[in-house]
Amino acid sequence: MGKTNDMVVLKGDFEKAVYKEQLLNEYTNNPFIEALPPIFNEDDVLERFMVTPRISEQDKLSETNIRYHVLKRVRNFIQPLPIHFEVERRLSTLIRRGYLARNPLDRTFLERVRVLHELREEEETAHKYIDERLNYIRSTADSLSIIGISGIGKTTAIERLLLMYPQVIKHEEYKGQPFNRTQIVWLKIDCPYDGSLSTLCKSFFKAIDDLLGTRYLEKYGYLNRVTSTMLLHMTSLASMYGIGVLVIDEIQHLLHSKNEQEEMLNFFVTLSNTVGIPTVLIGTSKAQKLFKGNFRQARRAASDGAIIWDRMDENSEEWEFFLETLWELQCLKTHSELTEETKKAFYYECQGITAVAVNLFILAQERVLFDEDNPAEIITPQV
Q1: For residue 363, what are the contacts with CB-CB under 8 A and spacing of at least 6?
Q2: Closest listed residue to residue 170, CA positions, set 109, 212, 111, 141
Q3: Boundary-marking domain end, from 309, 338, 371
């Protein structure tokens, strides 16, 4: 099993299903969609997204050694930026549109589950014709890739956005009829370091086990290679639990692997085609290489278009806004002003990368805190 055991799985809330009236016609009479929170507007995103650590006047009067600890709070700072709203909108439609062809009340859906069940029973021979058997059941799953340099906040953002949705919804009755289902709205797994597809599949089983206390990893994780058999089990669990979106982070690890990249991309295409779950692939700029090779793959792997998440531009409004908000989080004797010169020096050092900016701001204050030549504790470009 290798690396699967020490995988950290992001966990969200468990809820009982409460069905909401839908504003859009195509979303009605679909319990998987009706149980989701209402479609978020920008204010909802702002409110749930923003994290501004509190540093009180009292904190600023504390001893130096105490303030050193207070400064670490700044680490949690998250400032909503235009790109967060864009990713939220994409995610929101991805999940709902993915459920259109997987309405659990639909005849075709039940037919699909039946076919999957048959295929699982005859696992040995199944993978030879799984593609053609599943082909006639169309999938509406789209996928999205988010590519950006490391430290830009992709993972933090996607995790905050996922946590706006419950992760598991228990259904008991729908419109007076018994409807006993467990719906997994989202699942996030990280690409294994060794980039092996079979470890990736195992992480999928493990993530479900961690959530629901099931034992799928024992049951299906023994297969030594990624055959269509592993995918078959994934498909069947995805249908059974109505998985809304599968987020795969760190996909640049796939480049380390011995897999042919062709096989790799085919895997993701099959995932969204057969498994029918919308996928969000997240990776650093290295991951772009994965999509360069083959046009069919590239188009499929980003059917909803790729989001290239770039660092903030020095002259942009978002950088101004970000820096000014961050600058308020000082815990020094004197409130240092944000001068043009300081701004320049700050940008030069962090290049508009969020994680670097936040760390730089903390380190600058720590430096000042213990600098005997700077008794007023002022942050300067030299610092």
Answers
A1: none
A2: 212
A3: 309
